[in-house]
Amino acid sequence: MSPSHKLASKDSTEVDTSLIDAFGGVRGMVDMTVPGFVFVLLYTITKQLGVSAWSAVGVTVLLAVVRLVRRETLKHAFGGVLGVAIGAFIAMKSGKAQDFYLPSMIYGVLLGVLYAVSALVRWPLLGVMLGPILGENMTWRTQNPGRLAAYTKATWVWVALFAIRAAILFPLYWAGNVTWLGVAKIGLGVPPWLVAIYLSWLILSKAPPPIKVASEEEEKEEEPDHERV
């Protein structure tokens, strides 16, 4: 394998890993899926809103504790606990089980709008997130038009994902069909997320390689000894 192919392979692997990490990782998606599964399962069996809602909250807290014990990042776990707790609170206040899913549905719509706006103003959110992780910072926007185009295209993939989710979930919410809403919420979680990850990786793997920005530590290491004195 030639050095250029090795470099391209390395960059593709970095993009693949960075994409998964940027969106919470597989573990993060599982943490967000399990509470919803617990809620819809218990509600379908018992029809008890309180038991179902607070059981989901308890599972989310338990998953966060497991992350804490394993010394993993709590960033996505905290967001999960907060989202599930707000959903449980709203559902209990309204007495409508479908409201358990409303906060995350609204959040998805807002994210879709944010991604779309970022692509339209040529600051695609995917590039903003991945640039620092891949060591290119914002060079993709000012020095690498091919990557700007790729980040923009990949960002639209996520806009489409959020739009499809909303188009399926909101009619079920308005119909008050809690069981099918919960099933759809779970089904529209990890599988489409993996598809969006793959399509984004596919787009970025065909883009020009990132222009790396040397960190201060690297610059000091490259600096001749006589210049450090």
From TrEMBL:
The chain crosses the membrane at residues 28-45, 51-69, 76-94, 106-134, 155-174, 180-204. InterPro entries: UCP010219. Keywords: Membrane, Transmembrane, Transmembrane helix. It holds the Pfam family DUF3159. This is DUF3159 domain-containing protein. It comes from Streptacidiphilus cavernicola.
